[in-house]
Each structure stands twice: as structure tokens, then as C-alpha cells.
Amino acid sequence: MQVSAQKIVVLGTGGTIAGTAAQAGDNIGYTAAQVGVGELLAAVPGLQALAGGPLVVEQVAQVDSKDMEFGIWHALAQRCAACLDDPAVGGIVITHGTDTIEETAWFLHSVLAADKPVVLTCAMRPATALVPDGPQNLMDAVAVAATEGARGVLVVAAGTIHGAQRVQKVHPYRVDPFNSADAGPLGWVEEGVVRLAHAWPQPARQVHLAAVLHRPADAAWPWVELVVSHAGASGRAVDALVRDGVQGLVVACTGNGTIHQALEAALARAQAVGVRVLRSTRCSEGQLLPKPGDALVAAPGLSPVKARIGLVLELLA
Ligand code: SIN
Q1: Does ligand 1 lie within 6 Å of residue 97's CB atom?
Q2: Are both 106 and 226 inside the same structural domain?
Q3: What residue's CA is closest to ligand 1, atom 2?
Q4: Any residues with CB less than 8 A from the CB of 243 and at least 6 apart, and which?
Q5: pLDDT tens-digit profile of 107-120?
Q6: With 50 as the cut, is the pLDDT of residue 2 above it?
Q7: Is residue 203 part of a domain?
Q8: Can you tell me which atom of ligand 1 is nearest the CA of 65?
Q9: For the chain, how long is the longest CA-to-CA vector?
Q10: Quick one: which of 184, 188, 259, 280 could link to 307 by a disulfide (CB 3.0–4.6 Å)?
Q11: Structural domain containing residue 281
Q12: Shared domain check, 312 and 245
């Protein structure tokens, strides 16, 4: 695959990739989001050559991704949309924490018609680690962003390319913490060259960009909560949320979308008073198969956190 000569825009948002620890050998006792994205790039020799064209750096945010907020997503959507519209830009790289990267990826997939690569990357070890994984991940992400024909919102880490829909963090420590479940990854990056197992993702069918950008960045977004069905579940949390004005509920169901009867009764009450209720599954592989006559709508193929983003965007639209 050929390398383009267009600009690659790198948007920094923080994460462990930008983290620092007091001791170089410490891979867990660090503070995320300390080093600027420009400094991170400057520490990787050869990145510029790999990009094939100018690398432009912007710090959009500087957060530990557990604290990711809609305001940052708003800013990211705005910057990505502008870059996608700019013929001088060939691809976008976003540095991000691993903890919610799959949510940001799914949000961006849902709001952008990404006919260029939008590549999120990250690290499991801080920038100060003896053997950090961030520099290689950055190189791989830039290689993907510069690959002719690449498109879609992607997550690149540990030499693997994942699509936004299936990617999930499955491990809290190892340097390859993601998988794409039974769908498998989209491909790999090997010595700067992409090897694909599947086609690049199709852009989202329904793009919610206008609804997102129309709002002030600090406006409150629709209130959608996650609830989990489990042994001994009750409906009390749902009843309290409804009393407080929740607008949507996503249920992480057992198996193929089943729900503890006490929780299910509360969800039926919630739906009856106008709260949008959506079922997803706790299972990390496969996808929920809806049946005729199901009382609660399902979100097949989406994990609970991604189904929640879908419902927020629907309520926004
Ligand atoms: C974060 O998600 O910002 C911290 C954890 C990580 O990046 O691995």
C-alpha cells in the first residue's frame, strides 16, 4: 500500500500514553495526561518520515479517559469534521486513554462520515516507562492514517487495527488490552505496513453530526444511565432514576437479552412513562438476537456502553 503526501493531523486528549510516573520502572502508579501531544510526537524518531507529509499537532484535551466528557467529544467531533472536509488532510490520529477509547471511537463513528482514516491510539504504560508502548503505537497509528485507501474510525494498539463497533478493552494490564471479540480485528500493522483481514469499515448509516455540533459544547446531553441485570437484581435503582427524570436506560442483560423479573417490571414501568429503554447483553462475544414480540427494544451488535451512546444520540436528534 502506498503512503500519501497529505497532512496528518494528530489530536491529543491525554491518557496513559501521556502519563508520567515518579519512577521509571512503575507501570501502574502514574498520573495519566501529563505530557503534551507535541512532546510525545517529538520523542518518536522517524514519525515524520512515516507520515509522508506534514504532521500537525493539536491538544484538544488533557484528561484521564475515565473522566471523558461530552464536551471533549463535541470538540473532537468538530475538529475531525473540519479535517475530513479539508482536502489537504489525509488522515487523523487521536491520542487517548485506553479506558474509554472504545466509547470515543463509537461516538466518532456515529457522528462522522469518515471517508478518511480517523485512528485512535493509546498506551498501557506511561511515557516515562522503561519500555513504553506509546511510541510504537503512535508509529503504527500514523502508518495507518497515511495508508492510501484507509477509512473509518479505527483503534490501533499493539500492532492491531480494530473497528469502532467491535473493539473493547478486555484486560486491565497487558500491553495488548483490546479485542474485537468473535469478529476479529480488521488487520495488523507490521513494520509500518498494513495487512488487512477485513475491508475498511463503512461510514455510519445515520450520521448525527449536525445534532451534536448544533449544541453549545457545555450544554447538558440527554441523561441516559446503564443498569445491569444480575442475580438478586431489584427495580429500586430504576424507579429512583425515573423519579429523578432519567431520559433513557440501557440494560446490560444476561445472555440473549433476558432480565431479572424484578428489574424487568421496573423497566416496563419506566417505558410506560416515556423513558426510552434499550437492551444490550453482558456477553462480550456474539450479539443479542431480538425475537418477535420482545417488550423492550434491543441494540444488536453493541456493547452496553456503545448502546448508551447510540441512545444519547437518538435522544439528541
Ligand atoms: C486512561 O484511560 O486515560 C488511563 C488508562 C490508560 O490510558 O490506559
Answers
A1: yes
A2: no
A3: 97
A4: none
A5: 999 999 999 999 99
A6: no
A7: no
A8: 3
A9: 60
A10: 280
A11: 222-316
A12: yes
